[in-house]
Amino acid sequence: MSNLIAQYLSTEGLQILTATGQTIQMVFLSVIFAHVFGLPLGIILVTTSPGHILENKACNQVLGTIINAARSLPFIILLVVIIPFTRLLVGSSIGTMAATVPLTVSAIPFVARMVETSLKEVEWGIIEAALAMGATPWQIITKVLLPESLSSLILGATITTITLIGYSAMAGFVGGGGIGDLAMRYGYYRYQVDILLACVIILIVMVQVIQMLGEKLASIVNKK
What we know:
With 224 residues, this protein is mostly helical. The protein has one domain: MetI-like (MetI-like fold). 82% of the residues lie in helices and 0% in strands. The chain is built from ten helices and no strands. The chain is elongated and about 65 Å long.
């Protein structure tokens, strides 16, 4: 009997460990890809706004409308809508890599708005001083806007990561793998409350750790 219990606990622990690794993989890749695309969009939103260094009303309004439309789409609907696109990219609509695609797509407009908010916190006087010294728009972006808002950008990335952890659990309900998938298959369908509770605790710990690390890193780079 003791051997059976030990074997059960070992199998259960391995499943939880595997699911945790899948969630970390999904979230990590999604955060990276979301910032690769979302950061430039946020910069464009700010620099093309009225009175800024690359003012372009038409570009700003069109881009803002597209981002708002993308943000308004619920994640669970997005999972289904972009299934053809997901299959095109990764060859499947289920699994960890497949779940990374909708996670990234959902996070891009979110990151863009977070970046926009962070860059708008930079005092215009600093930008004006750089312009007076003959700095080009690219130099202002790379040497003024981004460095001056780095602390805020890190906090924004922290919020994005925590949001994607919640989304990744939701992706598990449609075969995305990870903690959500494990909680659904064993904790819900098979009424294994111990696994469900373990999944919840792991998600809580992940959020707490990421929030703590994000705040610590932001305080380190904060120049104010």
